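Figure-free illustration: sequence to structure, shown twice.
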Amino acid sequence: MKINKDNHVFTIVFTFISTIVLVFPLTLAYVGTKPIADNYWRLQHIVKTLHSLGLSADAKNPDQARAEYETLTKYTVGTMGTDNAGHPAVTFGRLDYNAIAQDPSKLQLLKVDDSVIDKALQDNSYTGNIPVFFYVTTVDGQQRFGGDFTGPGLWGNVSLAVGVNADGSQIIGTQVLFNVETPGLGGRIGEPWFTGQFAGLKPAATGLVFNQSGQKVDNGFDAIAGATITSTAVKDIINNHALVLLKALIAQLGGKS
């Protein structure tokens, strides 16, 4: 029997079968690989958070990294409520950075456990729009404060983990948690040579600046050649988000501000 390919029934059946054949395997692949991707994303977040606080961690020893991470005291900005199913859920607060800079008490801290961070990372694994989380620990008898901070890059969100010392006068470390910048250009912000520049920097009253003409200063770092927008994004996220909020965090928790 000859099939009339111009018939609407044929078109509908062909489209349905094609959709099943193409979409079903892709759906299975997504369902099967997403837990693996989420676990990798979570482990990278743990390791980079610890590094930003000057703590040793290695993705090759995940149990040790997770155990160290669990010792951190964690906060976010928001209020505890319930979701549509009645389960406990955090409503993340909006941030007025200028107001917080003027009055640290406007930073509404909520102490959270790892499950809140796990869910936020899972929900934002493809966008990098990570809510603000803070981390507090003690190293050699001295407090250290850190957090996750997100801002716009050239092509999407850039998320950084930034840690500072007890009074916020020195950066302990900076790690890139998420970026979708151009490979070989802005994407180089995730390379160790770039992130390694920030350890030990001493932000002035105006924050961090770019080094000029090879002249290094205490609050300066080298921008990536050909990636001015991404380099500026990193500087702005640290100056306008991380340092503002970490200073308020220190003031609220009794650090040496």
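We now fold a second protein in the same way, so the two outputs can be compared directly.
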Amino acid sequence: MFRRISWLIVLLPLSNGPMLPAQETNSPDIRVYFSPHGGCTDAVVRAVRESRSRILVEAYSFTSEPIAAALIDAGKRGVDVEVILDKSQEQARGTEADVISLAGIPTYTDPAYRIAHDKVMIIDGSRVITGSFNFTRSAEEYNAENLLVISNDPPLAAQYEASWKEHIARSRPFHPGRSHHRGGSHSRFYGPLETEEGTAG
């Protein structure tokens, strides 16, 4: 009696690198951080330093010197940075709004709401930073907060950018009636800033 033995031969394409399923290479990368002292500020700074073309920011309170410095450095590298803050930052003590505005970053406040409470960064049209974490020293050192850094997700970034555009359309230049920026500030979404006389600054 002979036994029939079947062999299954699978031919795999040659590759110079590891083979990964297609869905893994295109999946969003999600990182979560917690405070106090959970690396939230470092995660934001790292993402800003990795930016290449554009950073859109919404913040309620903004007193973090490391994050402000990272945004300024990004602007010096040629990254398009624009920031919307809650109107409270016009009078807040210790705000970094003055610092980034004087450094040439277009900065606005959103007066359309009782509180503009978003804490969001949209980076290069594919990365979103969000969560309860304010861009402040207190949020890093004293508060119970969470931070999500979601990378490689253009559809999600597009939704946040659409919301950002709605907010910028209702916003006004930081320190109403004046611009800190040489030659006047200009937002691609907001348009030229206007002086008190109604002409472009």
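Summary for the second example: The CA atoms of residues 42 and 85 lie 21 Å apart.
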